[in-house]
Write a structure and sequence with these properties.
Blueprint (H helix, E strand, L loop, with lengths): L1 H11 L9 H26 L19 H8 L8 H4 L10 H10 L11 E5 L2 E5 L4 E4 L2 E3 L3 H6 L6 H9 L1 E12 L9 E3 L9 E3 L14 E9 L10 H16 L6 E15 L4 H15 L1 E3 L11 H15 L1
Parallel strand pairs: 4-10
Antiparallel strand pairs: 1-2, 2-3, 5-8, 5-9, 6-7, 7-8
This protein binds flavin-adenine dinucleotide.
Length: 323
């Protein structure tokens, strides 16, 4: 109660200021209580950077509850919350990947297993090669990471290469744990600001569909962000699972004996980081791609911190503007 009243009093008396970076924004928008107890430690965990070095370009993604909702929540009165995350569709089986498979079934011309390594401009259009095969096309719409796209092109000017090197991002390690009971249900996600716990977020996937785990079992995925090249990326899977299980067993409600399956995935390109040079660097790169007539979309394709819905929307709008 003390904790809550402190957050509420600080929120109602928050300072009037024009924030210039993420740390200042946390204080200005929510007051010292919520900023220091949750927002700042959580954001430090996910971004792995000093929050004074992060810009405000993406803060519209942070839920923006009304004053009334914050007061009601502090008093324990239920509010509607972040509505677009409250109501959504999710595949009954096959996880979110089944969305991509169902799109593929409708697009018989799509070639998969082709890693773009070289892109060359020709008089008739473009040649794209994976080192063995070549695809020709009149137009390029790229959704591969912007790093791979630029690195596949010849004669890239130094100013563009420098801008590319300046782009900042985080990788993610995803630790998956399956248990022999249905206990990991009833919540969709847990956000953990505690710096002593490795993961910043835990998601309970059986909550989205009962098809996501066998009957009588359940599982969680724990996400750990790291800057590229961080030593944690080369830690053994077993050690990562052991550490995450020990971190989470009390807050998530399982014991090491309950674990029946585990796996670890590492994803290099996971979170776009909006540092203070973001606009300058992306501006140089976008201008260059525009000058070549190359179109781009998607999260790392356009280097924007967007989710699946926004990626689909961006691609749809781009294609509608071209055809
Ligand atoms: C940990 C985590 C949790 C997330 N949770 C959610 C969520 O709950 N809801 C949500 O909506 N979004 C979520 N997202 C974001 C979502 O995953 C992305 O927004 C979305 O997948 C981006 O789609 P995309 O097509 O731009 O890129 P991707 O899905 O990354 O696709 C890019 C493709 O390009 C391929 N590729 C890379 N290099 C080359 C190359 N040289 N040649 C050919 N192909 C190449 C890759 O193999 C990949 O298949 C999450 C992301 C992360 C990292």
């Amino acid at each position: 109660m003390l904790f809550r009243s402190e957050c509420l009093i600080h929120f109602l008396n928050r300072p009037e200021m024009d924030p210039e970076n993420l740390e200042e924004w946390c204080y200005a928008r929510f007051g010292t209580g919520i900023a220091e107890k949750y927002l700042i430690p959580y954001n430090r965990k996910i971004w792995k950077r000093n929050l004074k070095e992060l810009s405000l370009l993406w803060v519209d993604r942070i839920p923006d509850p009304s004053r009334e909702d914050i007061v009601k929540s502090a008093l324990g009165i239920e509010t509607e919350g972040y509505t677009h995350q409250l109501n959504f569709f999710y595949p009954r089986s096959g996880g979110i990947e089944s969305l991509v498979h169902s799109l593929l079934e409708r697009l018989p011309k799509v070639q998969t297993g082709f890693r773009v390594r070289k892109i060359s401009k020709k008089s008739h259009g473009w040649e794209i090669s994976d080192g063995k095969r070549v695809i020709e096309g009149k137009r390029i719409i790229s959704t591969i990471p912007i790093f791979d796209l630029i690195n596949s092109l010849d004669n890239v000017p130094d100013r563009v290469r420098n801008a590319l090197e300046g782009l900042q991002y985080n990788s993610v390690i995803v630790v998956m744990i399956g248990v022999n009971h249905e206990g990991l249900k009833g919540r969709t996600a847990l956000y953990i600001p505690d710096p002593d716990i490795l993961a910043h977020r835990v998601c309970y996937l059986k909550e989205f569909s009962s098809g996501n785990a066998p009957i009588g079992k359940s599982h969680l995925i724990a996400e750990i962000t790291v800057p590229p090249g961080d030593p944690l990326l080369s830690l053994d899977d077993d050690k990562l699972v052991e550490r995450v299980a020990s971190d989470l067993k009390d807050i998530c409600g399982f014991s090491e004996d309950d674990i029946v399956a585990s796996d670890v995935k590492r994803l290099e390109y996971a979170y776009v980081v909006y540092d203070l040079e973001y606009e300058k660097n992306t501006g140089i790169i976008y201008d260059y791609l525009d000058s070549l007539g190359i179109y781009y979309a998607g999260r790392f394709g356009s280097f924007k911190y967007i989710n699946m819905d926004a990626c689909v929307d961006m691609s749809r709008k781009l294609v509608n503007s071209l055809y």
